[in-house]
Amino acid sequence: QVQLQESGPGLVKPSQTLSLTCTVSGGSITTAYYYWSWIRQPPGRGLEYMGAIGYSGNTYYSPSLERRTSISRDTSKNQFTLQLNSVTPEDTAVYYCVRGDKPRGHYDYWGQGTQVTVSS
Description:
Mean pLDDT: 97
Order of helices and strands: EEEEEEEEEEE
Oligomer: single chain
Strand content: over 45%
Distance between the termini: 39 Å
């Protein structure tokens, strides 16, 4: 059973960088052919795909967020990380890390989600 767990600060100030880590257990992030994504849901809105890192380390980003987003991984810790720069209150959302068998979509395992609020 694969499990994903998000961690990071719940409050970030505007203009700062949001950093979240997803720790994976029950499976390796280097196992072919899985992709490890970040998805968020702002209050009252639908799910928004942010980007992914694949089993080989390739990264994929949503065009609308690409300029501010970076996804990386630490294979020794079986973790992958999201960094979102220059945040605004519009980035307030529940952030999820998920596993899929495509760079986008076909998700089978989800973390429980973590609330991040952007506020001064």
